[in-house]
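To close the section, here is one more complete example, presented without commentary so you can practise reading it yourself. The ligand is S-adenosylmethionine.
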Amino acid sequence: MSEHLTQYARMQKAYYDEAPLAVEDIVGNYEFHENFPYETHLLHRYGDIRKPVLPDAARARGFEIGCGEGRMVRRMARLLAQVDGADISEKMVRAARARTPGAEIFLSAGADCGAAASSSYDFAYCAISLQHICVHDTRARILDDIVRILKPGACATLQFFFSKYYPYCRTAAPPVNEAFLVDVHHLDRRHARWFENRWDAAATNSACDVAFGTQDIPEVLADFRRWFGHAEVWFHDLSIGRPESRGSGRPALLAPTHPNCHGWEDTWFTHMAFFHLREPRK
Ligand SMILES: C[S@@+](CC[C@H](N)C(=O)[O-])C[C@H]1O[C@@H](n2cnc3c(N)ncnc32)[C@H](O)[C@@H]1O
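Output:
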Protein backbone atom coordinates (compact mmCIF):
# COMPACT_ATOMS: atom_id res chain seq x y z
CA MET A 1 0.00 0.00 0.00
CA SER A 2 1.17 3.54 -0.65
CA GLU A 3 2.16 5.69 2.33
CA HIS A 4 -1.09 7.69 2.04
CA LEU A 5 -3.30 4.61 2.08
CA THR A 6 -1.32 3.16 4.97
CA GLN A 7 -1.78 6.36 6.95
CA TYR A 8 -5.54 6.29 6.35
CA ALA A 9 -5.81 2.58 7.27
CA ARG A 10 -3.80 3.21 10.46
CA MET A 11 -6.16 6.02 11.46
CA GLN A 12 -9.27 3.90 10.71
CA LYS A 13 -7.97 0.88 12.62
CA ALA A 14 -7.05 2.97 15.66
CA TYR A 15 -10.43 4.72 15.52
CA TYR A 16 -12.36 1.44 15.65
CA ASP A 17 -9.99 -0.48 17.94
CA GLU A 18 -9.33 2.20 20.52
CA ALA A 19 -12.86 3.58 20.88
CA PRO A 20 -14.04 2.78 24.43
CA LEU A 21 -17.39 1.70 22.98
CA ALA A 22 -19.33 -1.53 22.92
CA VAL A 23 -19.19 -3.13 19.48
CA GLU A 24 -22.93 -2.42 19.03
CA ASP A 25 -22.23 1.29 19.58
CA ILE A 26 -19.52 1.21 16.91
CA VAL A 27 -22.13 -0.16 14.49
CA GLY A 28 -24.27 2.74 15.70
CA ASN A 29 -28.09 2.97 15.71
CA TYR A 30 -28.00 -0.79 16.14
CA GLU A 31 -31.73 -1.17 16.68
CA PHE A 32 -32.55 0.85 13.57
CA HIS A 33 -30.21 -1.25 11.44
CA GLU A 34 -31.60 -4.48 12.86
CA ASN A 35 -35.03 -3.31 11.76
CA PHE A 36 -33.93 -2.32 8.26
CA PRO A 37 -34.71 -4.95 5.56
CA TYR A 38 -31.15 -5.27 4.25
CA GLU A 39 -31.68 -8.81 2.97
CA THR A 40 -34.41 -7.63 0.60
CA HIS A 41 -32.25 -4.82 -0.76
CA LEU A 42 -28.98 -6.72 -0.97
CA LEU A 43 -30.36 -9.87 -2.56
CA HIS A 44 -32.91 -8.39 -4.98
CA ARG A 45 -32.58 -5.82 -7.73
CA TYR A 46 -34.41 -2.64 -6.79
CA GLY A 47 -35.51 -4.35 -3.55
CA ASP A 48 -38.03 -6.25 -5.70
CA ILE A 49 -38.37 -9.83 -4.44
CA ARG A 50 -39.33 -10.95 -7.97
CA LYS A 51 -35.79 -10.04 -9.08
CA PRO A 52 -33.20 -12.06 -7.11
CA VAL A 53 -29.57 -11.18 -7.88
CA LEU A 54 -28.53 -14.83 -7.35
CA PRO A 55 -29.95 -17.77 -9.31
CA ASP A 56 -29.86 -20.02 -6.22
CA ALA A 57 -29.21 -18.11 -3.01
CA ALA A 58 -29.50 -21.19 -0.79
CA ARG A 59 -26.40 -22.68 -2.46
CA ALA A 60 -24.38 -19.46 -2.66
CA ARG A 61 -21.26 -18.40 -0.75
CA GLY A 62 -21.44 -14.79 0.39
CA PHE A 63 -18.83 -12.36 1.69
CA GLU A 64 -19.30 -9.16 3.71
CA ILE A 65 -16.70 -6.41 3.53
CA GLY A 66 -16.53 -4.43 6.79
CA CYS A 67 -18.61 -7.01 8.66
CA GLY A 68 -18.21 -5.47 12.14
CA GLU A 69 -19.35 -7.76 14.95
CA GLY A 70 -21.16 -9.98 12.44
CA ARG A 71 -24.72 -8.61 12.57
CA MET A 72 -25.35 -8.99 8.83
CA VAL A 73 -23.23 -12.14 8.50
CA ARG A 74 -25.64 -13.82 10.94
CA ARG A 75 -28.68 -12.49 9.08
CA MET A 76 -27.43 -13.34 5.59
CA ALA A 77 -26.31 -16.82 6.76
CA ARG A 78 -29.98 -17.69 7.18
CA LEU A 79 -30.47 -17.22 3.43
CA LEU A 80 -27.13 -18.26 1.88
CA ALA A 81 -25.22 -21.54 2.19
CA GLN A 82 -22.18 -19.85 3.77
CA VAL A 83 -21.26 -16.27 4.67
CA ASP A 84 -17.76 -15.07 5.56
CA GLY A 85 -16.49 -11.56 6.16
CA ALA A 86 -13.55 -9.24 6.80
CA ASP A 87 -13.02 -6.18 8.95
CA ILE A 88 -10.15 -3.79 9.64
CA SER A 89 -10.75 -3.78 13.40
CA GLU A 90 -9.30 -6.51 15.59
CA LYS A 91 -11.92 -5.72 18.21
CA MET A 92 -14.76 -6.23 15.71
CA VAL A 93 -13.13 -9.34 14.23
CA ARG A 94 -12.79 -10.87 17.73
CA ALA A 95 -16.47 -10.18 18.42
CA ALA A 96 -17.58 -11.52 15.03
CA ARG A 97 -15.59 -14.73 15.46
CA ALA A 98 -17.15 -15.30 18.90
CA ARG A 99 -20.70 -14.42 17.85
CA THR A 100 -20.88 -15.90 14.36
CA PRO A 101 -20.03 -19.60 14.47
CA GLY A 102 -19.62 -21.24 11.09
CA ALA A 103 -18.35 -18.07 9.42
CA GLU A 104 -14.73 -17.37 8.56
CA ILE A 105 -13.92 -13.83 9.64
CA PHE A 106 -10.71 -12.34 8.26
CA LEU A 107 -8.69 -9.38 9.47
CA SER A 108 -8.37 -6.82 6.67
CA ALA A 109 -5.39 -4.48 6.29
CA GLY A 110 -7.87 -1.73 5.37
CA ALA A 111 -7.91 -2.03 1.59
CA ASP A 112 -8.59 -5.72 1.02
CA CYS A 113 -10.71 -8.74 1.94
CA GLY A 114 -8.02 -10.22 4.17
CA ALA A 115 -6.93 -13.80 3.51
CA ALA A 116 -10.20 -14.78 1.79
CA ALA A 117 -9.56 -17.27 -1.02
CA SER A 118 -9.55 -16.08 -4.64
CA SER A 119 -12.43 -16.90 -7.02
CA SER A 120 -14.47 -18.56 -4.29
CA TYR A 121 -17.55 -16.41 -3.61
CA ASP A 122 -20.83 -16.08 -5.52
CA PHE A 123 -21.83 -12.82 -3.86
CA ALA A 124 -20.12 -9.92 -2.06
CA TYR A 125 -21.95 -7.21 -0.16
CA CYS A 126 -21.48 -4.38 2.28
CA ALA A 127 -23.80 -2.61 4.68
CA ILE A 128 -22.84 0.70 6.34
CA SER A 129 -19.09 0.13 5.93
CA LEU A 130 -17.74 1.35 2.57
CA GLN A 131 -19.75 4.57 3.02
CA HIS A 132 -17.39 5.40 5.89
CA ILE A 133 -14.27 5.27 3.67
CA CYS A 134 -13.55 8.78 2.43
CA VAL A 135 -10.56 7.73 0.29
CA HIS A 136 -11.44 6.75 -3.26
CA ASP A 137 -8.13 4.93 -3.75
CA THR A 138 -8.82 2.78 -0.68
CA ARG A 139 -12.27 1.84 -1.97
CA ALA A 140 -10.67 1.13 -5.37
CA ARG A 141 -8.21 -1.32 -3.76
CA ILE A 142 -11.11 -2.97 -1.92
CA LEU A 143 -13.00 -3.32 -5.22
CA ASP A 144 -9.88 -4.90 -6.77
CA ASP A 145 -9.93 -7.43 -3.96
CA ILE A 146 -13.68 -8.03 -4.13
CA VAL A 147 -13.20 -8.91 -7.81
CA ARG A 148 -10.32 -11.21 -6.80
CA ILE A 149 -12.44 -13.24 -4.34
CA LEU A 150 -15.55 -13.44 -6.56
CA LYS A 151 -16.05 -16.37 -8.90
CA PRO A 152 -16.31 -15.49 -12.59
CA GLY A 153 -19.98 -14.67 -13.18
CA ALA A 154 -20.58 -13.75 -9.51
CA CYS A 155 -22.22 -10.50 -8.37
CA ALA A 156 -22.22 -7.92 -5.59
CA THR A 157 -24.52 -5.41 -3.93
CA LEU A 158 -22.80 -2.50 -2.18
CA GLN A 159 -24.72 -0.03 -0.03
CA PHE A 160 -23.80 3.66 0.30
CA PHE A 161 -25.58 6.82 1.47
CA PHE A 162 -26.90 9.42 -0.96
CA SER A 163 -28.62 12.79 -0.82
CA LYS A 164 -30.69 14.24 -3.62
CA TYR A 165 -29.47 17.70 -2.44
CA TYR A 166 -25.76 16.87 -2.11
CA PRO A 167 -23.32 18.72 -1.97
CA TYR A 168 -25.79 20.90 -0.06
CA CYS A 169 -26.92 19.73 3.36
CA ARG A 170 -29.44 21.12 5.81
CA THR A 171 -27.60 22.75 8.71
CA ALA A 172 -30.46 22.85 11.19
CA ALA A 173 -34.23 22.97 11.37
CA PRO A 174 -35.45 25.83 9.11
CA PRO A 175 -36.10 29.14 10.94
CA VAL A 176 -39.71 30.15 10.54
CA ASN A 177 -41.87 33.10 11.63
CA GLU A 178 -45.24 34.56 10.55
CA ALA A 179 -43.62 36.22 7.51
CA PHE A 180 -41.21 33.67 6.06
CA LEU A 181 -39.67 30.25 6.17
CA VAL A 182 -35.95 29.88 5.36
CA ASP A 183 -34.78 26.38 4.56
CA VAL A 184 -30.99 26.79 4.67
CA HIS A 185 -28.62 24.25 3.14
CA HIS A 186 -24.86 24.72 3.43
CA LEU A 187 -22.18 23.45 1.09
CA ASP A 188 -20.80 20.32 2.74
CA ARG A 189 -17.15 20.32 3.78
CA ARG A 190 -17.27 17.49 6.30
CA HIS A 191 -17.54 14.53 3.94
CA ALA A 192 -15.55 13.59 0.84
CA ARG A 193 -16.85 13.81 -2.74
CA TRP A 194 -16.91 10.47 -4.58
CA PHE A 195 -13.48 10.74 -6.26
CA GLU A 196 -11.76 12.58 -3.44
CA ASN A 197 -8.90 11.03 -1.45
CA ARG A 198 -9.21 12.42 2.07
CA TRP A 199 -6.34 10.23 3.28
CA ASP A 200 -5.43 12.69 6.04
CA ALA A 201 -8.91 12.51 7.62
CA ALA A 202 -8.67 12.49 11.40
CA ALA A 203 -11.81 10.40 11.95
CA THR A 204 -14.21 7.97 10.29
CA ASN A 205 -17.56 6.20 10.97
CA SER A 206 -19.78 9.22 10.05
CA ALA A 207 -17.19 11.87 11.01
CA CYS A 208 -15.82 11.87 7.47
CA ASP A 209 -17.65 9.66 4.98
CA VAL A 210 -18.02 9.54 1.21
CA ALA A 211 -21.06 11.32 -0.20
CA PHE A 212 -22.71 11.74 -3.57
CA GLY A 213 -25.71 13.51 -5.03
CA THR A 214 -28.05 13.46 -8.01
CA GLN A 215 -25.63 15.02 -10.50
CA ASP A 216 -22.90 12.51 -9.55
CA ILE A 217 -24.89 9.35 -10.38
CA PRO A 218 -23.63 8.81 -13.99
CA GLU A 219 -19.96 9.24 -12.99
CA VAL A 220 -20.33 7.02 -9.95
CA LEU A 221 -21.90 4.25 -12.06
CA ALA A 222 -19.12 4.66 -14.64
CA ASP A 223 -16.61 4.31 -11.80
CA PHE A 224 -18.09 0.95 -10.71
CA ARG A 225 -17.93 -0.22 -14.34
CA ARG A 226 -14.12 -0.20 -14.06
CA TRP A 227 -14.56 -3.37 -11.94
CA PHE A 228 -17.88 -4.77 -13.19
CA GLY A 229 -19.29 -5.14 -16.69
CA HIS A 230 -22.70 -4.16 -15.41
CA ALA A 231 -23.61 -1.64 -12.68
CA GLU A 232 -26.96 -0.19 -11.68
CA VAL A 233 -28.21 1.69 -8.63
CA TRP A 234 -31.48 2.39 -6.91
CA PHE A 235 -32.43 4.39 -3.85
CA HIS A 236 -34.39 3.64 -0.70
CA ASP A 237 -35.89 6.83 0.73
CA LEU A 238 -34.96 7.31 4.39
CA SER A 239 -36.32 10.82 4.66
CA ILE A 240 -40.06 10.28 4.47
CA GLY A 241 -40.59 9.21 8.06
CA ARG A 242 -38.57 11.98 9.66
CA PRO A 243 -40.07 14.57 11.98
CA GLU A 244 -41.84 17.44 10.23
CA SER A 245 -39.00 19.94 9.89
CA ARG A 246 -40.80 23.07 8.78
CA GLY A 247 -41.44 24.50 12.19
CA SER A 248 -44.85 22.90 12.72
CA GLY A 249 -43.57 21.02 15.76
CA ARG A 250 -45.26 17.89 14.43
CA PRO A 251 -43.43 14.83 15.76
CA ALA A 252 -41.98 12.07 13.62
CA LEU A 253 -44.57 10.11 11.73
CA LEU A 254 -42.85 6.79 12.27
CA ALA A 255 -41.16 5.17 15.24
CA PRO A 256 -37.36 5.75 15.33
CA THR A 257 -36.72 2.11 14.50
CA HIS A 258 -39.11 1.98 11.56
CA PRO A 259 -37.19 1.02 8.36
CA ASN A 260 -38.16 4.26 6.67
CA CYS A 261 -37.19 6.52 9.55
CA HIS A 262 -33.59 7.43 10.20
CA GLY A 263 -34.56 8.78 13.56
CA TRP A 264 -32.71 12.08 13.49
CA GLU A 265 -33.15 15.23 11.49
CA ASP A 266 -29.72 16.77 10.89
CA THR A 267 -28.19 13.98 8.86
CA TRP A 268 -26.86 14.82 5.38
CA PHE A 269 -28.36 11.87 3.49
CA THR A 270 -31.85 11.30 2.20
CA HIS A 271 -31.50 7.78 0.79
CA MET A 272 -29.64 4.52 1.01
CA ALA A 273 -28.14 3.67 -2.39
CA PHE A 274 -27.78 0.03 -3.41
CA PHE A 275 -25.35 -0.66 -6.26
CA HIS A 276 -26.04 -3.95 -8.01
CA LEU A 277 -22.85 -5.10 -9.75
CA ARG A 278 -22.46 -8.02 -12.15
CA GLU A 279 -19.80 -9.48 -14.44
CA PRO A 280 -16.66 -8.92 -12.35
CA ARG A 281 -13.74 -7.99 -14.61
CA LYS A 282 -11.34 -10.71 -13.55
C1 LIG B 1 -20.81 0.91 11.10
S1 LIG B 1 -19.88 -0.58 11.21
C2 LIG B 1 -20.93 -1.71 10.29
C3 LIG B 1 -20.64 -3.16 10.58
C4 LIG B 1 -21.52 -4.16 9.82
N1 LIG B 1 -21.37 -4.05 8.39
C5 LIG B 1 -22.98 -3.99 10.18
O1 LIG B 1 -23.77 -3.67 9.28
O2 LIG B 1 -23.31 -4.17 11.36
C6 LIG B 1 -18.56 -0.27 10.06
C7 LIG B 1 -17.55 -1.38 10.06
O3 LIG B 1 -16.71 -1.21 8.91
C8 LIG B 1 -15.39 -1.55 9.28
N2 LIG B 1 -14.47 -0.86 8.36
C9 LIG B 1 -14.35 0.47 8.19
N3 LIG B 1 -13.37 0.75 7.31
C10 LIG B 1 -12.90 -0.46 6.88
C11 LIG B 1 -11.88 -0.82 5.96
N4 LIG B 1 -11.14 0.11 5.34
N5 LIG B 1 -11.65 -2.13 5.74
C12 LIG B 1 -12.38 -3.07 6.41
N6 LIG B 1 -13.34 -2.78 7.32
C13 LIG B 1 -13.60 -1.48 7.55
C14 LIG B 1 -15.29 -1.05 10.72
O4 LIG B 1 -14.23 -1.64 11.42
C15 LIG B 1 -16.64 -1.39 11.27
O5 LIG B 1 -16.66 -2.65 11.89
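Once you have examined the C-alpha coordinates, check your reading against these statements. Residues 3-280 form a domain with the Rossmann fold fold (CATH 3.40.50.150). Residues 67 and 85 are 6 Å apart (CA to CA).
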